[in-house]
Every structure is written in C-alpha cells, then in structure tokens.
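Long-time lurker, first post. I've been practising inverse folding by hand and with some scripts of my own, and I keep getting stuck on stretches where the structure tokens seem ambiguous. Below is the full token string for one chain I'm working on. Before anyone asks, I'm not after the true native sequence, just a reasonable design that respects the backbone. If someone could post their per-position residues I'd love to compare against what I wrote down in my notebook.
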C-alpha cells in the first residue's frame, strides 16, 4: 500500500511543489479559464530590502512563466493577526521589483498572483476558495486588467467527497488535503496531472536524507498541534473560571445575568491571551524558531524574547 507525504509539513509541501510540472498543473487548475501556464522558472525566493530598515521577504515558492507573470505559492498552517496584510505586502513587493530605470519604461507590469494554501479558515470568508482583486466598488467588476490577485484556498473549509469533485482544482484539493491518509490512490489513473502529483508525493520516492528531514518535520508538527490544543483547552478553562469570578462580582452590583455575561466575555479574552503566551513558551522549549512562533501566536518577537 502506497503512503504519501503530508502537504501541511514544510518538507511535504516543498517535495510536491518543488517539481516544476506539478506546480504548473496546480497553478493551471487554480487559474482554469483565466490563464494557461506553459512553462515556469523558479526564481530567487528572497527579495532583499530596498533599505536596511525594511523587511526581507521570503516566499515558499516564487516562480515566473514565459510571459513574465509571477506566482507566489505558499502553505500557511496557523492564522496570524495580520495575515491578509502580510500577503498583500508580499505581492506589492513583487510588483515593485518589476520597476525599471530610464525614460523608456512605460509601467508595463506583469501580473502577480499569490496562491495561499491554508490549514485554517479565513474569518472573512465562508467558502473554501476566496479570490481578492482590485475592483470597481460600484460594480464589483475588476478594475482594468488584473495585475494583482490573491487566491486563498482553505483546507479547513474544503469538505467535498471524492465523488463531489468535478473540476481539476477540486480534485487537486481533495488529493492534497487527504493523501497522507489514503488507503489507495484516488484519481491517479484518471489524469496525468494527478498521477504526477501522487508519484512525487510518494514517501517511497524520498531519499534517506529527505525522509529523515520529513520525519523530523512530522514530529515537530505533531508536537506543535498537541501543544496548541492543550494551550487552547487550558486557556478556555482559565477564561471560564475568571469570567465566572468577575461575573459574580459584578452580578452582586448590577445583576447576576448582566455581570456573568460580561465577565465571561472578558475572562475568555484574557484566557485566550494567556493561552497564546503558554503556546509560545512551550514552542520555545522545543527550540522552534522565534519568527515561526510569532507567526503562529500573533505575539511580537520582543514579547516572545521576554517569556
């Protein structure tokens, strides 16, 4: 029985999308009816800051097609407080990088697409796919030719069965979300793109060194999930306790019902904040990079350093 990588892991994601034809297949599935990519070139995924005080931008994958369009493809496991702003900033830096000096350049910008695979739900959306473009506010239609587009694909909201998948993207999402738990290989014989994807994702195809890195990623991922779940449960318990205590105090003054409700709300908020700090402390003990901890908890690097 074949076993496949978990796309949520850094090594699993890069094993799959580091293969050019697999990346082309997936991008074409995402942009079906809008753009057809014939070839890709992986380019330097690190954009150095224009001045020393600015942030260096690093992508999971940054590639370019033969027409000069750029594609950022990333996997994001946990929500961040400013996740949309972060993605928008990355795209804008990629657009600005196209600028050329001299009087002859006429702002001939090539499109930039950000494709983000999410292991969580976007609060702004109720669907598993969300496309964000510049649009005319009055009509809702794209403003001019689309030059910048963000596409968010949420595994958390994707719940189609194999039989319900009709489009190439739906089938690809089903495979990517579930392939690490497959007992057999769905779609593999139906489409060359799916066959390529599953062949690349096969654990047996990894070298011993690649498998060692993957296994270490898997251990860290499981530890992180366990820590996150424990911290969330502990935060909720503390929040409920504090909320009840404060609610009872206020209830003596302004009525039990009103005080309990407000106390619960404030207590939950304080408990969740405490939970984020507990998560950060536990992740630090495991030696996980502070920048990654900051992305996962929403805390600043300075706050984490003090813990």
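-- Answer (accepted) --
I ran through it position by position. Result:
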């Amino acid at each position: 029985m074949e076993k496949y990588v978990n796309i949520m892991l850094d090594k699993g994601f890069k094993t799959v999308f580091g293969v050019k034809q697999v990346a082309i297949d997936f991008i074409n599935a995402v942009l079906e009816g809008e753009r057809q990519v014939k070839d890709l070139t992986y380019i330097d995924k690190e954009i150095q800051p224009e001045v020393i005080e600015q942030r260096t931008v690093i992508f999971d994958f940054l590639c370019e097609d033969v027409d000069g369009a750029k594609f950022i493809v990333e996997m994001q496991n946990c929500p961040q407080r400013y996740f949309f702003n972060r993605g928008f900033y990355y795209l804008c830096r990629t657009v600005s990088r196209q600028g050329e000096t001299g009087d002859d350049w006429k702002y001939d910008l090539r499109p930039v697409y950000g494709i983000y695979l999410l292991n969580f739900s976007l609060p702004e959306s109720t669907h598993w796919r969300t496309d964000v473009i510049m649009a005319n506010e009055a009509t809702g239609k794209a403003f001019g030719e689309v030059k910048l587009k963000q596409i968010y694909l949420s595994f958390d909201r994707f719940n189609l069965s194999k039989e319900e998948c009709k489009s190439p993207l739906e089938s690809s999402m089903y495979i990517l979300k579930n392939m690490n738990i497959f007992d057999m290989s769905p779609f593999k014989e139906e489409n060359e793109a799916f066959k390529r994807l599953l062949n690349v994702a096969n654990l047996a195809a990894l070298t011993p060194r690649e498998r060692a890195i993957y296994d270490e990623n898997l251990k860290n991922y499981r530890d992180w999930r366990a820590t996150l779940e424990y911290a969330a449960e502990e935060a909720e318990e503390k929040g409920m306790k504090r909320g009840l205590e404060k609610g009872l105090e206020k209830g003596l003054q302004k009525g039990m019902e009103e005080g309990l409700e407000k106390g619960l709300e404030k207590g939950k908020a304080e408990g969740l904040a405490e939970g984020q700090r507990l998560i950060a402390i536990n992740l630090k003990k495991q030696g996980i990079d502070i920048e990654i901890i900051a992305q996962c908890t929403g805390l600043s690097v300075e706050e984490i350093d003090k813990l």
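A couple of notes from the structure itself: DSSP finds nine helices and eight strands in the chain. The first helix runs from residue 10 to 17. Happy to go over any region you disagree with.
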